[in-house]
Amino acid sequence: MPQLNPNPWFTIMLLTWFTFSLIIQPKLLSFTSPNKPMNKPTATKPTPWTWPWT
Fold first, then answer.
1. Read out DSSP for the chain?
2. Would the pTM of this model clear 0.90, i.e. be above it?
3. Is pLDDT at 15 greater than 90 in this prediction?
4. What are the Low complexity biased-composition ranges (predicted)?
5. What band does 35 get if pLDDT is binned at 50, 70 and 90?
6. Cα distance between residue 52 and residue 54, in whole Å
7. Rounded average pLDDT over 24-42
8. Which of 1, 11, 46, 51 is 20 to 30 Å from 28 at the Cα level?
């Protein structure tokens, strides 16, 4: 069963991982978001439910 032989697949996985982390990831992280995050409004505390039987 060839899928149990890790020789070619492990090398391919390592090369892919190094390519992503050394080349692609820094290019993706260099982009900046065009929209600045907005401040979230403070959450208001909900009013408690009034149960008719209490």
1. -GGG-HHHHHHHHHHHHHHIIIIIHHHHHT---SSPPPPPPPPPPPPPP--TT-
2. no
3. yes
4. 40-54
5. confident
6. 6
7. 79
8. 11
Question: Looking up tokens 């149990």, which residue turns up?
Answer: 4
Question: Quick one: tokens of 4?
Answer: 């149990």
What lies within 8 Å, CB to CB, of 9 at 6+ separation is: 3
Residue 24's pLDDT band (cuts 50, 70, 90) = confident
Structure tokens at 25: 């990831």
